[in-house]
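Recall from the previous chapter that SMILES is a line notation for molecules. Here it describes flavin-adenine dinucleotide.
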Amino acid sequence: MNLKERLSFINDVEYLENENLTSYTTFKLSSIGDLIKVKSLEGLKALMPVLAQNNIPYLVVGWGANQILPAKCNDKIIHLEFTFDLDNLNELKSEYILPASLGLNHLTAHAVKFGLKGWEVFTGIPASLGGAIFMNAGTNLGEIGKLIKSVRLMTTSGEIREEVITENSFSYRHNHFVNPGEIIIDATLTHLGIDDSIPQKIKDYLEYRKKTQPLATKNCGCVFKNPLKELPAGKLIDLLQLKGVGVGELRISPKHGNFMENSGKASWDQFSTLVELINYEMDHFFGIEFELEVKIPYH
Ligand SMILES: Cc1cc2nc3c(=O)[nH]c(=O)nc-3n(C[C@H](O)[C@H](O)[C@H](O)COP(=O)(O)OP(=O)(O)OC[C@H]3O[C@@H](n4cnc5c(N)ncnc54)[C@H](O)[C@@H]3O)c2cc1C
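With both inputs in hand, we obtain:
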């Protein structure tokens, strides 16, 4: 029995071969591959042993806001679409158990409604909760790791494992507990009390981000890691007067040097060419080679 037939027996798992994956990342570079949509915990539990027994490589994509998919994806793409009743966010609680597939935008809306202290860290970060926990996403208002009490993960054999979060569980944009192949399924979040100034703080921060980042475009956030904290990659690209420079339908954002904007159907090749061009100039003028911040499968 082939994989398609095997997966057709699992409830809440949809397997789509040679699917157009372009809309599964925020950058929307053209991409094709096999997609596995998982709509329940039971579905995921049944799926994992099948993938493990058949040595099938896979990659989890949340909102795809920190990932670029190649033109042809060899790994299967797993996308969680767990159902969640948003009415659960209509009332104030001291703790919340939330699914990995929930968007952080819902958490920001909840924080604005009730003035939840600590939850301002979600402001403007495009992410699923699972992707944000994996990346320990954050802004200069703080990072998500500080609000997480525990995380439940699905292991490669289809067991559920609970990780109790400690001060060593996260570091800057990293988690230290998701083992290779494990998938975050949900998390218990807390907050730091009520603070009436939070809604305004969130509004102001959103305005600031809109002014400084090309949020309305198709992009992948910051493309490169900052070589040093005091040497932001965007500033260096700006110094080289590369803002606005482009290849095909891809260009370096005129608003922020560390962002690239896809104005239409930009491709993986155009992305690679633009990265090479930036690195050539960086090496030539500053003797620095940038490291990619955005995740690329197989790199
Ligand atoms: C316009 C823009 C602005 C941004 N601003 C910020 C910012 O201010 N701060 C910041 O920290 N980031 C920022 N980012 C980057 C991005 O939003 C974060 O990295 C975010 O955490 C990615 O979440 P995601 O759901 O899109 O994850 P993805 O990009 O889909 O995945 C990221 C990583 O997490 C893994 N992953 C995803 N879900 C799961 C899961 N359920 N279980 C196990 N592994 C999983 C993936 O395999 C991958 O390795 C920005 C991006 C954009 C496009």
